[in-house]
UniProtKB/TrEMBL annotation:
This is Radical SAM domain protein. It comes from Pelosinus fermentans B4. Its cofactor is [4Fe-4S] cluster. GO terms for biological process: rRNA base methylation; tRNA methylation. PROSITE patterns: RADICAL_SAM (PS51918). The keyword Ligase does not apply.
């Protein structure tokens, strides 16, 4: 794997454009969390596919379509590259890996699982995070494969809407798995591992931040072992989708956090197009 380009963000995030052996390219984000907002010091956000077939409307990766799955070696290779090339020689080793880059990791489950096992045994990493739009049967496979091991996988569900009708407009996979089924699987996951599942909710102006959204989300999540992670939508120049302002995010948080455990998420690397939904196979000129 070859690094074609590296960009460094204001928050010290480093985004790598990497070339695979067949000429395809992927992006990887390395995050140095000075304030420990992510719990860990050094985190790598890896891609699991070249492109993605899920077609989420807000996502740059989704716009380019699906090319192929990454192999276990290509997934682990991204962490090896970050370990060897990161800017300031940090004294703390990479201690967490997040599957939230390009691709839907649960649709490349066997290679993702193999990569987790290799990173645990060879690199000593035991903390993982996985972001999914909600591939319900695979959530149950995660439970079956990792319950009782020394590997912790924090599950993130990309919800971003308060009803199935609303979510279908931005996440076509909702057609297959309803929010009710996804939250049921997430609840089973949380109970199996004794942890909270993180429900990701990006706020789009005039779309999903109204009082009725707060009411529906409260009905869906109240009393469940979940944490709502609220963030601004990362601008991708997609027609009709505008990020909510900081004040709107704060007001939304202030209201919903009275009923549901919530936090506002810092979008790492958004100034270098390394934030959630911003990674893509970039052409090098
Ligand atoms: S948000 Fe995730 S699942 Fe949706 S298109 Fe982007 S990479 Fe794929």
């Amino acid at each position: 794997m070859k690094v074609l380009r590296k960009r460094i963000g204001q928050d010290h995030s480093e985004k790598y454009l990497m070339e695979l052996e067949d000429g395809n390219t992927i992006e990887t984000l390395y995050m140095f969390d000075e304030k420990r907002q992510l719990t860990f010091h050094n985190t790598v956000c890896v891609s699991s596919q070249v492109g993605c077939g899920m077609g989420c409307r807000f996502c740059a990766t989704g716009k380019q379509g699906f090319t192929r799955n990454l192999s276990m070696k290509e997934i682990v290779g991204q962490v090896d590259v970050c370990n060897s090339t990161r800017e300031n020689a940090r004294t703390v080793p990479i201690d967490a890996v997040v599957f939230a880059g390009m691709g839907e990791p649960l649709l490349n489950y066997e290679q993702v699982k193999a990569a987790i096992l290799v990173m645990r045994s060879r690199l000593g990493i035991s903390h993982f995070e996985l972001a999914t739009v909600g591939i319900v049967p695979k959530i149950y496979e995660l439970i079956k494969d990792f319950q009782g091991t020394d590997i912790s996988i924090r599950l993130n569900i990309s919800l971003h809407a308060s009803s199935d009708d609303q979510r279908r407009l931005i996440i076509p996979m909702t057609e297959r798995y309803s929010m009710y089924k996804i939250i049921q699987a997430a609840t089973d996951y949380a109970i199996a591992f004794g942890v909270k599942v993180r429900i990701r909710y990006m706020l789009f102006r005039d779309f999903n931040g109204k009082a009725e959204d707060i009411r529906r989300l409260t009905d869906l999540l109240e009393g469940k072992p979940m944490k709502l992670i609220i963030s601004q939508y990362n601008e991708n120049n997609i027609q009709g989708l505008i990020p909510s302002g900081r004040l709107e995010v704060l007001e939304f948080y202030n209201t919903i956090s009275t009923a549901i455990d919530s936090e506002i998420f810092h979008n790492f690397g958004s100034d270098i197009q390394g934030g959630c939904g911003q990674l893509k196979q970039t052409m090098v000129v």
